[in-house]
């Protein structure tokens, strides 16, 4: 029997969360399909580090494989599930939409069914700030309507929230969704801005800057994301007795279901982000200013009042410190001077 099941354990957030839980003496079963969306060598190196701890067990598995997931839950009977596996990326969803159907919709349904079959004690799942879509009221609040996604990726994450709510209502499975805001840090995804910018600047290549740099992001350091997850994992959501069906609040429910934002709560202008990276690298960037990309939004900013009220947690890592740590890791990992 598994104490904690983490899907996407070889991914960016899954790796850091697994390592954090193992350091705390907890037992983790991690699954991942090790797909080639980005460099598999990075995923395997993360996995190698996790497997140095005997309390971690890895199973190579695709969440879209219904029978395999059903067998996994029947065999492991996890008390707590943290579902992080997904097809990520807004831009990739423009050209590879069916990858999102298989992983984010079919795969998530398989996880929900697994939880239903064994009556898992708590399902924590990754949503995204992308669900706020066309919203421009800042900061983004969990009380906001999120019915206007501007990418298929965002639509699948909104669908995950709705699917989880249905299972919480029908089968009383406690579900908590976490809307992550622009996660960055060591061991990050190579398709994310910080990784792309660092690689290009060090190679004396221009960096692509969309919306001509007029962007803001609530960049959130990986350790803060992980601490937020850890705080929430053992806090099982309960039905809200004050929920009003006449004036339903998207942030509350009659079911054992909860949504939180996890963001730095301090949006940073993209050009300031780049300037900080330049200082850490000791090298100037050449900017290739481009128009807004389809599916993108000009700004994100997390309202984390509920997170602070319920679990007493607020991210603390500054953008300067976070980028410095990433650059140090990058130089070490790629053996650069």
In a few lines, what is going on in this structure?
By secondary structure, the chain is an alpha/beta fold. It contains 11 helices and 13 strands.
H and E order: EHEHEHEHHEHEEHEEEHEEHEHH
Low-confidence runs: none
The averaged pLDDT comes out at: 95
**Biggest sheet strand line-up:** 3-2-1-4-5-6-11
Query: What class, by secondary structure content?
Result: alpha/beta
Shape: globular
* Radius of gyration, taken over Cα atoms and rounded to an integer in Å: 19 Å
Task: Please give the structural blueprint.
Blueprint (H helix, E strand, L loop, with lengths): L3 E4 L4 H12 L4 E5 L7 H11 L5 E5 L5 H11 L3 E4 L8 H4 L1 H22 L3 E7 L23 H20 L3 E6 L2 E2 L8 H10 L4 E3 L6 E2 L2 E2 H12 L23 E6 L5 E2 H12 L5 E3 L15 H7 L7 H15 L4
Parallel strand pairs: 1-2, 1-4, 2-3, 4-5, 5-6, 6-11, 7-10, 8-13
Antiparallel strand pairs: 9-12
Helix pairs in contact: 1-2, 1-8, 3-5, 5-6, 7-9, 9-11
């Amino acid at each position: 029997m598994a104490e904690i099941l983490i899907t996407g354990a070889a991914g960016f957030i899954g790796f850091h969360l697994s390592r954090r839980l193992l350091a705390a003496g907890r037992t983790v079963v991690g699954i991942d399909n090790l797909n080639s969306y980005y460099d598999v060598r990075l995923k395997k190196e993360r996995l190698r580090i996790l497997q140095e701890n005997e309390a971690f067990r890895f199973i190579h598995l695709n969440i879209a494989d219904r029978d395999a997931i059903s067998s996994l839950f029947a065999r492991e009977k996890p008390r707590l599930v943290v579902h992080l596996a997904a097809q990520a990326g807004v831009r990739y969803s423009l050209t590879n939409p069916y990858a999102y159907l298989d992983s984010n919709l079919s795969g998530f349904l398989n996880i929900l069914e697994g939880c239903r079959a064994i009556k898992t004690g708590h399902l924590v799942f990754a949503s995204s700030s992308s669900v706020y879509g066309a919203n421009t009221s800042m900061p983004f609040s969990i009380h906001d309507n999120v019915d206007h996604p501007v990418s298929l990726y965002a639509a699948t994450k909104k669908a995950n929230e709705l699917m989880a709510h249905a299972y919480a209502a029908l089968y009383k499975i406690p579900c908590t969704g976490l809307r992550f805001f622009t996660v960055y840090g060591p061991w990050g995804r190579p398709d994310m801005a910080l990784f792309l910018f660092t690689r290009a600047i060090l190679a004396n290549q221009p960096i692509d800057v969309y919306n001509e740099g007029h962007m803001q992001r609530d960049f959130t350091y990986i350790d803060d994301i992980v601490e937020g997850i850890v705080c929430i994992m053992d806090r099982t959501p309960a039905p809200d007795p004050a929920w009003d069906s006449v004036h339903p609040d998207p942030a509350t429910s009659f079911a054992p279901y909860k949504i939180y934002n996890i963001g730095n709560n301090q949006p940073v202008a993209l050009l300031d982000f780049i300037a900080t990276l330049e200082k850490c690298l000791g090298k100037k960037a050449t900017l290739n200013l481009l128009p807004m990309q389809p599916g993108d939004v000009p700004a994100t900013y997390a309202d984390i009042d509920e997170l602070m009220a319920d679990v007493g947690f607020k991210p603390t890592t500054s953008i300067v410190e976070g980028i410095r740590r990433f650059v140090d890791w990058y130089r070490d990992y790629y053996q650069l001077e």
